[in-house]
Amino acid sequence: xxxxxxGPTYPIKGGISHYTTLLVRALRKENDVLFVSxxxxxxxxxYPGTGQTSDDKNPITEDCEYLWHTLQPWSxxxxxxxxxxxKADGVVLTWVTHFFGxxxxxxAHRIHxxxxxxxxxxxxxxxxxxxxxxxxxLTRMAFNSVDGYIVHSExxxxxxxxxxxxxxxxxxxxxxxxxxxSTADWTRDSARKSLGLTSExxxxxxxxxxxxxxxxxLVDASPEIIKSIPGCQIFCVGDYWDGPDEFENQAKSLGxxxxxxxxxxxxxxxxxxxxxxxxxGKYFAATDLVVLPYESATQSGIVQIAYGFKKPCxxxxxxxxxEVVLDGKTGYVIPPKDPKAIxxxxxxxxxxxxxxxxxxxxxxxxWRKVFDxxxxxxxxxxxxxxxx
Length: 388
Fold this sequence. Notes:
By secondary structure, the protein is of the alpha/beta class. The protein folds into 2 domains: 2-175 and 372-387, Glycogen Phosphorylase B (Rossmann fold); 179-370, Glycogen Phosphorylase B (Rossmann fold, 3-Layer(aba) Sandwich), CATH 3.40.50. 41% of the residues lie in helices and 17% in strands. It has helices spanning 15-27, 74-86, 101-114, 135-143, 154-163, 179-182, 188-194, 215-228, 245-254, 277-286, 301-308, 321-324, 339-351, 353-367, 373-387, and strands at 2-6, 32-40, 65-69, 90-95, 119-123, 148-151, 169-171, 202-206, 233-238, 267-272, 289-292, 313-316, 331-334. The chain has a 7-stranded parallel sheet with strand order 3-2-1-4-5-6-7, sandwiched between helices. Strand 9 (233-238), helix 9 and strand 10 (267-272) form a beta-alpha-beta unit. Helix 7 packs across helix 10 (277-286) and helix 13 (339-351) crosses helix 14. The radius of gyration is 21 Å and the shape is elongated.
């Protein structure tokens, strides 16, 4: 097939950028693919954190044409004409947030008019995790403009069916980010040495820190974890959208903020900022257990990074997370907003770490085959064929 994919890639940072680039890489094994991305994405006023671009020394890249400028509507016509020139059989557009509602609708309209081919919306979230002004009408505008959809979770499938009962939808799990493990130079020993660890137990929270991701519940669980697992270090690593002060103060008030002068006591270690690709593997190679205390979710790339390193995860029973983490086999599934449950499962793991680590690793090795990128390629190819 000849396919076009439109979405973020390097130098735009973050998991969706990694995802889109790896999707193009997988598609190009069997297809000719035109990859189109942004030369300008968000106005800085609506994007908190440490900025939109990365300075990765080892970026994940694929050949790409940077044509989309979100403040220049005429760039959408340019994209549609380029897709027609490429003679694509179909187009995959990336959907993350309603900010792009009008843009997606306008782009899909131009592709239909100029190139006359089907448009798929690859939905990372059908609904936003936090209420935003104009979310409903902008989302409907985009979703009413395309021909087919791909979702990653049963929750998103149900949400989409409620608003578009006759839609042509395919569900495909979020593929595994094994690239961080396969290209990493980090061993467990070198990673732990770099982080100042030797034999101390380590728990990892990783990724952007936003209210719905529930980091406060892990910090709330820290006194019980550290009491039962002496010396345990709880790394909270990510781009803190509103700054790390809230969580540092929370850990201080609980008496669990990590103290460099007494490392033997363990504690909550705040690592604030975007983690470049070459550093991602360090945290996952070093850790024993990954915790995702989300209050809401559809799916998570963090689980798929962890699976790349064969690391078990503690996740909450929200969205698509219990679909990808098998309770008691590849990790644990617990209720949301429950620090007691976080502590109990973390303690359970470390109390039998030698046996559980081997058991979980064996289960993850088999289970992650379900998340191979080849399945996503098959889903896109079959959906385009059906739509044509």
